[in-house]
Design brief:
single chain; alpha+beta; 2 domains; 5 strands; 24% helix
Amino acid sequence: MTLKKYTLIKLTLILFLILFFIIYIIELNYVLEVSKISDLSKRNVNEYVLISGKIITENLINKTLFIKIQDNTSVISGVIFNSGFLLNKSKEYNFEGKISIYNNKIELLIKKVY
């Protein structure tokens, strides 16, 4: 391998690592604001949102948890895939996920619960 090719490979690797580090820092500092359920609509489809609320119904079918979440403004359906467990209905949770459409209604495809 010639010196020019070796230098080019080193430079490419360094630039890749710098770009990866920048993306990592941006990801760490990205914080979702809590959304009111009543503010969500079909225009939010494919957006990631954070909602806070209580579970009013839940149904676990084959490791998929179907829930209804209520905040002080409205109710939304949510789905947690590969869940395998039920949540405490008396506790308030934060739900992060992606808004989607199912049966012409918005629902939350939940990625994180805390």
